[in-house]
Amino acid sequence: MLRYLPFLLVLALWIYAFIDCLNTPEEEVRGLPKVVWVIIILLFGEVLVGPIAWLVAGRHRHAPANGSTPSEWHRSHRTTFVAPDDNPEFLHSLREEAASADEVKDESLLKDWEADLRRREEELKKREGEQGGEQA
User: 19, 28, 49, 98: which could form a disulfide with 44 (CB 3.0–4.6 Å)?
Assistant: First the structure.
């Protein structure tokens, strides 16, 4: 297994340089056009000349913004977790949802009551009509 390690490392570097070259924007490529760099990486990848040349001279490497690395930025910009019951925006959204749900519920309940009232009034009128007809 150990005898395959150099071959695997060369292959990994070759693949990394090739993908890095393909993903690099054209304006960040130095020296040669991007297509020429891809050809160099593919032709001279087995002897590591192409991938190393790309990593050293092919891409413009710029320093991180404000001189800080991404991990430093994340350390200085931590967000604090707020529980949902302490988050005013979440509580406000719950109140709005509850109010709209209550309105819909109230409207359907009112419609049901009105329909029930009409049905009872019609039954009452029928009874009064039947009783009036029997008495005469």
Answer: 49
Q: Kindly report the pTM of this predicted structure.
A: 0.46
Residue whose pair of structure tokens reads 């570097």 in the numeric block: 13
How far separated are the first and last CA of the chain, in Å rounded? 113
Phi, psi (deg, nearest 5) at residue 29: -85, 130
In this structure, what DSSP letter does residue 46 have?
T
Residue that is written with structure tokens 């040349």 in the block: 53
In 3D space, the residue among 41, 39, 47 whose CA is nearest the CA of residue 17 turns out to be: 41
pLDDT at 118 exceeding the cut of 90:
yes
Q: Are 60 and 29 in contact (CB under 8 A)?
A: yes
Q: What distance in Å separates the CA atoms of residue 91 and residue 87, rounded to the nearest whole number?
A: 6
